[in-house]
Amino acid sequence: MLKTYFDDGQQKTEGLFVSGKKHGVWRHYFNSGSIRTILNFDQGLLEGKSYWYHPNGSLAWEENYSKGKPNGKFLYFDDGGDLRIEKIYKNGKEISYVFDGKEMKKN
Questions:
Q1: Using 50, 70 and 90 to split pLDDT, how confident is the model at 28?
Q2: Is the pTM here over 0.70, yes or no?
Q3: CATH number at residue 91
Q4: Domain residues for 57?
């Protein structure tokens, strides 16, 4: 298990390498000690759900990956917890984008 630390000794990162590649759950922290990200890896590629948090601890992003590519719903929440953006990906390509409840056209 790899752990890194900020200059003040507060934990910054924790995760596992298998055969030189990120594997399993990786956590990154803000200097305050609160969780910044929870990322899931399989042989160095993002896999499954990943989560990003605002400094106040509320969920910022919920993402889904398959073999390192965006796949499924990506949800963005403002720091008050309200859903602002919903994107849907299929095999790495964005197929839908909704902002504040309104579907946005792609250029």
A1: very high
A2: yes
A3: 2.20.110
A4: 2-103
